[in-house]
Amino acid sequence: MHTAAITGTGVFTPSQIITNAELVVAFNAYADRMNEKNAEAIAAGEMAPMQHSSEEFIVKASGIEQRYVMDKTGILDPEVMHPLLRQRSDDEPGIMAEMAVDAATKALAQAGKTAGDVDAVICAASNMERPYPAVAIEIQKLLGIDGFAFDMNVACSSATFGLQVAADMIRSGSIRSALVVNPEICSGHLEWRDRDCHFIFGDVATATLVERIEDAKGPHFEILSTRCATEFSNNIRNNNGFLRRSRPDGVADRRDMQFMQNGRKVFKEVLPMVSEHISTHLADSGIASDDLKRLWLHQANKAMNDFIGKKVLGRTPEPGEQPNILQDYANTSSAGSIIAFAQNSDDMADQEIGLICSFGAGYSVGSAILRRHMG
Q: Each residue of 32-52: pLDDT tens digit?
């Protein structure tokens, strides 16, 4: 059995930012248009008027202050309310592959490696822009990597599930290294016309290079243990899919064809599941919570992370122990915990231990326990 290690990370951040203030102006303009359009039904009590959103509401509900997106023009247009991304020809790189290549190139550079050092590419994300050919294989070609590549989807847990798959292949000896890439265009499946969730998501891409530990050229993180778990739930769901046109009214603009969430149930059911998962993973690995120097959690909601951190550590986390990046990036699905890790790990000392954890639709939860090595 070989030991796997994370030797490099990379983050692609879109150039366009939507602040809460901008988002609120656009949403409220849309709400006013809809209320005016349905004035008679509202007056007759047949439907409720749309409520305005506010910056205060968004921050209180999520802790999010802004988000990066691939296109803000369509999102902020009350007549559109979704990103406008041009149609690319089949001969051009896909937008997800383009994002992933940027992040992957940064991860390789940090590790001091080239495409020739990589055996496999795993594209793990909550959505793929097409069913086939696999986006991972396109990324593999664009980077000039030999070997193989495949896509996988476990919603917001995709990155940690991808890490386990990569680590397991390295442990078994079937490969020496793998790039796990997480291109997330969450703005494409968010319902920007829904007050309860219009502020949640942002776009980003992350990449993680996983190698045999003896191949590491500099500071790296030994993967001590990985663990995944799933439990079916409809409380986070998107019903879009390839069978849509085959069903009555399948192509209608239905609400369930975008991101759907029963927030109260998710909060109530996911938090105990995740807290127990992390605590059990640590205990089974012989690691006390006091030995944990860093928690890099899924970046969905500040209150959720605060709850999990306190439950796992048995106290309120100290500043820096449980870094949050969602105030700047919003929820970026599978990429969130990897952003937190990439931006808040260089300061860790030799032999210090941290844990990456992501969780979401499924329900799903994945965790990886890491030990810092300075080289």
A: 999 999 999 999 999 999 999
The answer to whether the pTM exceeds 0.90 is yes
Residue 95 CA to its chain's centroid (Å): 17
pLDDT at residue 42 in the model? 96
**CB atoms near residue 243 (< 10 Å):** 9
Between β-strands 148-152 and 66-69, what pairing exists: parallel, antiparallel or unpaired?
unpaired
228 is catalytic: no
Tracing tokens 């796997």 back to the chain, one arrives at: 4
- Catalytic member of 156, 186, 228, 357: 156
Count of C-beta atoms within a 10 Å radius of residue 162: 29
pLDDT at 44: 96
Looking at the chain, how many residues does it have?
375
Angle subtended at Cα 164 by Cα 160 and Cα 170, rounded to the nearest 5 degrees:
140
pLDDT, position 260: 92
Q: What is the 3-state secondary structure (H, E, C) of the chain?
A: CCCEEEEEEEEECCCEEEEHHHHHHHHHHHHHHHHHHCHHHHHCCCCCCCCCCCHHHHHHHHCCCEEEECCCCCCCCCCCCCCCCCCCCCCCCCHHHHHHHHHHHHHHHHHCCCHHHCCEEEEECCCCCCCCCCHHHHHHHHHCCCCEEEEECECECHHHHHHHHHHHHHHHCCCCEEEEEEEEEHHHCCCCCCCCCCCCECEEEEEEEEEEHHHCCCCEEEEEEEEEEECCCCCEECCCCCCHHHCCCCCCCCHHHCCEECHHHHHHHHHHHHHHHHHHHHHHCCCCHHHEEEEEECCCCHHHHHHHHHHHHCCCCCCCCCCCCHHHHCECHHHHHHHHHHHCCCCCCCCCEEEEEEEECCCEEEEEEEEEECC
CA angle 11, 15, 20 (to 5 degrees): 100
Mean pLDDT of the chain: 96
